[in-house]
Amino acid sequence: MSxxxxxxxxxKTFDPYPTLYSRTSTGAVQTWKVEVExxxxxxxxxxKGGAIITSDWTVCQGKNLGRAxxxxxxxxxxxxxxxxxSKKLKSGGYWENESDIDKVRFFEPMLAYKxxxxxxxxxxxxxxxxxxxxxxxxxxxxxxxxRKGENYITILHIWNAxxxxxxxxxxLVLDGEGYNHDLRFKLNECMSLLRKTxxxxxxxxxxxxxxxxxxxxxxxxxxVNGKEITTKELPTxxxxxxxxxxTVKSYGKIISKAKSIVISGPMGKYEDNEFNxxxxxxxxxxxxxxxxxxxxxxxxxxxxxxxxxxxxFSYISTAGGALIEFLMGKKLPGVTALEKAASKRT
Length: 346
What we know:
By secondary structure, the chain is an alpha+beta fold. It has helices at 3-13, 73-91, 156-168, 187-194, 202-211, 245-257, 277-287, 298-306, 321-327, 333-345, and strands at 20-23, 29-37, 40-47, 52-54, 58-59, 135-140, 143-145, 173-179, 213-220, 260-264, 292-296, 315-317. The protein has 3 domains: 14-100, no CATH class; 115-220, D-amino Acid Aminotransferase, Chain A, domain 1 (2-Layer Sandwich), CATH 3.30.470; 245-327, Rossmann fold (3-Layer(aba) Sandwich), CATH 3.40.50.
């Protein structure tokens, strides 16, 4: 079978709405799938190997008719189905691969309980910590997240301050709140900046740096499995699997000022959670930059998809080394052949 035939077969069998899987509280495997047919969609749910419950069809109508962003009924059905699937993957505990269902997608912190419900079980003396009226911020080497696992995008100053700590303690998890006690009477302003998890302007980020602080009241994982070394310590007998916090910070300064950014290749062994700090940090900086971002290469694309950054890049190319050579002005055999073929037709 030729490569073209293999590709066409994959296209034919590609399912844009794959079955999703999760683990129930009883240990069973739960399945969820959305089915789209023209302008309508429905859901199929149930435990694997058991009865499957099918919902009624939801029929969609076109929206914004006559406008540039108008959608047909079919387009609206597809849009709503994908949104439902995205929600399941994001915070519903579901995965596309059944083998992943026992993984932890994000650290979910404990919520507060009412003292009156546990008054008889409290042991004295005890330590009391202030509860700030801010926004929950869970920090680890993966980034700064809400208690539901969404990434904060306005408090880069806090991440920059902590990145060196996570490079030294890759297993560290901090739990606290984004808040400013001195500005507690302007809580609405602080929270409106903190809660931006989709889009943030440079003005939002600058304003957040002035008003939002990080109050940490819990943490664990102060263990070191790796060691960060400086360039002055090179050469070294240690195997090197990632770039360090200083390099990430240095790259970040360049990326923040760049108008066009081309990235091809990960920073390190990103598929290993212990060594994905550099790749994840640099890709996030590129994805959140104001410049045009172009990424290329199989490993780069895989890393971008792993860290859920695909939609934030301006353009993604499947070419890696060939892309870099083309941008450097080198002649590529495939392009040369096409140019010659085109010239013969004219």
